[in-house]
Design a protein that fits this description.
Number of strands: 14
Distance between the termini: 36 Å
Radius of gyration: 18 Å
Strand order of the largest sheet: 6-5-1-9-10-11-12-13-14
CATH superfamily: Ribokinase
Shape: globular
Largest sheet: 9 strands, mixed
CATH topology: UDP-N-acetylmuramoyl-L-alanine:D-glutamate ligase
Number of domains: 1
Structural class: alpha/beta
Order of helices and strands: EEHEHEHEHEEEHEHEHEHHEEEHHH
Strand content: 15-25%
CATH architecture: 3-Layer(aba) Sandwich
Number of helices: 12
């Protein structure tokens, strides 16, 4: 169905509403706590309390993959709205404040009672690698009833994160949101998030790809291999290139590739003096790419925007931009 109205928002995202708790740590602590180095592990509240007690001094910053991407987009001047579930507790208030202070509309009502607002305990080793341990908390109980369907229909792009596909209730909510967005003629962007999510729900993701539901797909090199079963990067790209209108694959220090409607573009990673914390690198790459995509910019330029955003966020702690990103774009593009 063609669009009947001009979108009010550039991007509307549905994702985990969590607060990141970030601490520098030694390699020895990673081993001592038996963490999945460099990966993301879902944990329960008891394990979250255990890890928090073992953490060195930490800083708290609102996170969540899709929310981080929106924060990047808002910093770049785009109009964004977020749908996600927090509890009516202190961390929920922190998250809501941080989103609104960034200029993002966030009006999903808070959830009363247990569980608490979600948090991600992030251990950063001296090489900048982050090891994430996620307690989803209230976020895994986002119901379809909480969706503002008129809001979803008013966004040019509906952006979804794979992390939130794991719990059943928000998965139903996202399926409904996809239907609403498609009926309104909007684009669906999807980030696979992590290989373990693909291992659990790959059949769903592959079915959506085959059915033409996903217009823009973001994966990293590892996720591409898990999704396609192809260990060779080029073979993985070939397996999806004809099935997704816009495919974006990131490769950390090796740069990124995008294939859109048969056109291929590649960019190198933007060098940084020191990698401090890789948390949010993929999220900010997506923000940069989408900031160009919604303006109809060439594919290579969209990738360059993504690389610039990723380089900024890995140069400091935390998953969201700290620099004046519009000025940075003007300087580096």
């Amino acid at each position: 169905m063609p669009e009947t109205t001009e979108p009010r928002y550039d991007v509307i995202a549905i994702g985990n509403a969590v607060v990141d708790v970030i601490a520098s740590c030694s390699e020895e602590l990673i081993e001592e706590l038996q963490l999945n180095r460099g990966g993301m592990t879902l944990i329960d509240e008891a394990r979250a309390e255990e890890l928090y007690a073992a953490m060195p001094p930490a800083r708290e910053v609102s996170g969540g993959s899709a929310a981080n991407t929106l924060a990047g987009l808002a910093t770049l001047g785009l109009q964004c709205a977020f749908i996600g579930q927090v509890a009516e507790d202190q961390l929920g208030k922190v998250f809501r404040h941080d989103m609104r202070a960034t200029g993002i509309d966030f009006d999903t009502p808070g959830r009363e009672g247990e569980p608490a607002t979600g948090r991600v305990l992030i251990f950063v080793t001296p090489d900048g690698e982050r090891t994430m341990n996620t307690f989803l908390g209230a976020g895994q109980f986002l119901p379809a009833a909480a969706l503002d369907e008129s809001l979803i229909a008013s966004g040019a792009i509906l952006y979804l994160e794979g992390y939130l596909w794991d719990p059943e209730e928000p998965r139903r909510a996202m399926r409904r949101a996809i239907a609403v967005a498609r009926e309104a003629g909007r684009k669906i962007a999807f980030t696979a998030s992590e290989s373990f999510v693909i291992e659990r729900h790959g059949d769903d993701f592959r079915a959506m790809i085959e059915d033409g539901v996903i217009d823009i797909l973001f994966v990293n090199e590892t996720e591409l291999a898990t999704l396609t079963g192809e260990d060779d990067f080029e073979a993985g790209l070939a397996a999806l290139a004809d099935k997704v209108p816009v495919l974006v694959a990131t490769r950390s220090e090796k740069g990124a590739v995008a294939i859109a409607h048969g056109e291929r573009a590649e960019v190198a990673a933007v060098p940084v003096i020191k990698v401090v914390d890789t948390t949010g690198a993929g999220d900010q790459f997506a923000a940069g790419f989408l900031s160009g995509y919604v303006k109809g910019e060439p594919l290579t330029r969209c990738l360059k925007r993504g690389a610039i955003c990723a380089s900024e966020v890995i140069s400091h702690y935390g998953p969201r931009p700290e620099a004046d990103m519009q000025a940075l774009m003007a300087e580096r593009l």
